[in-house]
Structure formats: C-alpha cells, structure tokens
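**User:** My hope is that you can spare some time for a protein that puzzles me. As I understand it, each token names a local backbone shape. I would be glad if you read both lines and explained how they fit together. The protein I mean follows directly.
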Amino acid sequence: MSTFLSGKTVFITGGSRGIGKAIALRLAREGANIVIGAKTTEPHPRLEGTIYTAAEEIESAGGKCLPLQLDIRDDDAIQKVVAQAAAHFGGIDILINNASAINLSPTEALEPKRYDLMHSINVRGTFMMSRACIPYLKKSSNAHILNLSPPINLAPKWLGQHLAYTMSKYGMSMVALGLAEELKKFKIGVNALWPQTTIATAAVQNLLGGDFLIQKSRTPDIVADAAYVILSRSAQTCTGNFFIDEEVLKEEGITDFGKYAVNPSESLMKDIFLD
C-alpha cells in the first residue's frame, strides 16, 4: 500500500468510539499508524467499545495501533503519552483533537463541575494536547492538527441555547484559528471540521435525542471521509479553515450522500452552530 498516509503516525484523542474511531479506521485503511489516547479501558454499559477493542478493529483494517489510556485533563499524562507515542512510531505527523464533553443545560441548571468538565476537556485539553505535539509535528513533512469543532457563529441563539457548551466548542475553534497563524512559519496546517448534520454517536443517542435523532443522522463515516481529504492536502496551504464535512466532499466531486444516512427515508437534522 502506498498512499500519503503510509507510515505516518496519527494521534487521535477520544478514539475508542464514534467519530474518533471512524477517522482512525479510515486512516488505518491507508496504512497509517494510529495512536488512540482515550479514557475507556473497561466496557461501559451505555458506551460501546474500549481503546483495546478499537485497536483490534484498526489493526484489522490494515493499520498499526497503539492504544494508550489518557485523561487529557492530566498534564503529566499528556506529556508521558505523547512521548511514548512518538518513541513507539518514530514521530507524530497528525493530531486529531476529537475528545469532547457535552452538556446542553441552560446556565442556571448547569452544575459547576459540568462546566469545568467541558472546559477542561474541550478547550484546555485541546490546547495542551496541541502544545505537547508541536515539537514532533515540526519534524514532519506534512503535519496537520485537526479539531472536531464548529465554525465560530456569533448568532446570539447559539450562545443563548447552551452557553457553556458553546463557549467550550468555540474555544476549540479558537485554538485551531490561533495555532494556524502561530504555526504557519513551521508549515503545520491547523483546521477545524464539523458535520453538516447530526451524527449517529453515543452522545446523540444518550444525551441529545435518542433513536428519533439517530434516525435523522448520518454515520460517522462522512466525517472520517472528510477528515481524510483535509489531511491529504498540503499543510502549507490548507490551514486556518472551518470545514464542513459535506462541503469538503462536494469539493472532491462527491454528490451522492445517501450512503451516509442512517435511515435514507428520514429527513436529516442539521447540526447545531449551523444556520
């Protein structure tokens, strides 16, 4: 197998299920080395998969995988795990900041610990993971950081509906925009990617809309395919963008998105933060 990803090392946070795992599998099929940094090491009653079951799937798909337990709120753990990943595979070429916490409660109903969880994972975790990987990314020939976060849409309704969560996701997007500028001189591409529609994940199933919303969603594969396209581009010129999965694929000439629908007979639900 000879693609631009052959032998490249991709570090994905929160890659044991959902969008993170789908991206890992997509890149593994192209011969990438995958490092999964996530918390789940034991099966959970409501959440599918662990870092070890994901690693088995990734290796079956054709990639090499190093599963590492990681809580991205722990600075020492970040430094240790990133160094371990780089030593194991000989470097890090791509970082995908996928790990994220969600709680859509209005301000008065949101417990302080839930606020702290979202901000410590979504904003601080993304920042610190990026910080730890930069020395390794500088040595790569086509280094990328890709954050799973939305365009910064300042329409008041998105702030008013779930202020704490919105702040945390926009914080991730600000990290992408800021690092794109800061790291331009090192030819490291930094971008954000967000889905056009809701995606069939455990978060959507358990926290947002149950099976009703799942039926109106697309599978994580559409985000994975869009991520693959972005990462195939030159890091020198592809940087500082807020990408939407469907638009990325349309640019590649893809027009039939039916295969991504969970239920093609259902109308799709547009994702939050998109007007």
Summary: The first strand starts at residue 9 and ends at 13. The chain has a mean pLDDT of 95. The beta strands are 9-13, 33-38, 64-69, 94-97, 144-148, 189-194, 242-244. The radius of gyration is 17 Å.
